[in-house]
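As a warm-up, study this chain.
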Amino acid sequence: MVSTRAVPNLAFRRLRGPRSAGEFAAAVRRSAREIGEQVACDARYIGRVESGEIRCPNYAYERVFLHMFPGTTLEDLGFSPRASVRGRAARSAVDAPPPTAPPPEPGGDDEESDVLRRVFMTSGTTAVAAVSLGLGLNGPAAALPLQRRVGDSEVSAVERAVRQIRVLDDRHGGDWLYRRASQPLRAAYALLDAGTVSRRSTADRLHSGAGELAISVGWLAHDSGRFEDARSHYAEALATARVAGDPALEAHAFCNVSFLARDTGRPREAVRAAEAGQRAAEPLGSPRLRALLALREAGGRAGLGDRTGCERALGRAHAAFSRGPSGADPEWMSFFREAELEMLEAQCWAALGDWARAARHAERAVRLQDSHFTRNLALYRAELTWDLARGGRPEEAAAAGHAVLDLLDEVQSSRIRAILHDTVGALGPRTGATSPVRDFLDRYASVPACPADPSPSGV
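Now compare it with the structure written out below.
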């Protein structure tokens, strides 16, 4: 029996020097930002590297470490060669028995290591991974061949999983779906790691599908308030895009990184990521994609209090959007219609404190939104409620708030609930409120904190 005991990485520990693990993790994050990477490095991750638990970093971390220590190799930093780690995982997968239980759910830092991705593969063959792509939400999982060669059927299963997750998210939000979607994501990366892809075109589709799945799961984490999980998933998608040379996937990843940075109070990072996304999107020929990325930039500049820069970015967004849809628009942008344009602009004006203008755009967004996008409709109404409350129009805010509560049986989104919570605080105490406002506050107080999962149908 070959020992699998972790061997401490003394070379990496020496590089840390007198700094604490937390201080060194902060230096890693700063270096990542310098080269446009996104890594959710913390003291725990540094500890896992130094203990030898992480024998080889993922591609994003590799680029950051080599940037921090120019002229070195992974071996110089105490890591095992990537080929040896990949080979061992793949060989172990061939003879391993099928799992008796699904792999554990990924936590906030699981996605940081390629090694942990391969833990899934030690549970069985590619067939096990493929079966996991059915989501198990309605009907049977995808039935895929039992060989290790990855072909069109496996890649199609990954693409179907992406579409199904997006449809369910449009209707119900991220809270209930996130953990269900994590298993197909592990399965998609297991296919990347374990199989021999039959054609280059199939390999390209698989990389793109796995990256899009990482973004979709990252968005579910984002929407349900699991921000560090979201950062890790987005970073993995970005690394996949860089490895595959896929500018469309890279632009999408940067778009979501910018969105997350804005939502978590890092407006400067939001601007940088949006600008990087715009550079990646230049050769793609999609005006709508350029418009969305310009709106992401506008949101970051609004968070910085840069009204002039925000207005310029909004102008570029409107100009690009006015060119209309095109055949080059990515499939994932089906949500980006005029209603979303209005809502993102409303959020910019809210960040700048122009509540009246924010409310006007939010009202247009609610009026224009397709009822199919139930989660976004609830979000738009919640944003309108907040803008009206902050703008000194409490009774109108209460009316809009009732419309949000009407949808909470169908939609589970921590993001929407957080907006409602803040709105209730802005409306003030129940005592002294007018009757319409009191009615809304009473109804909000009676809403269960964690309602049961919805039961989607027809998917």
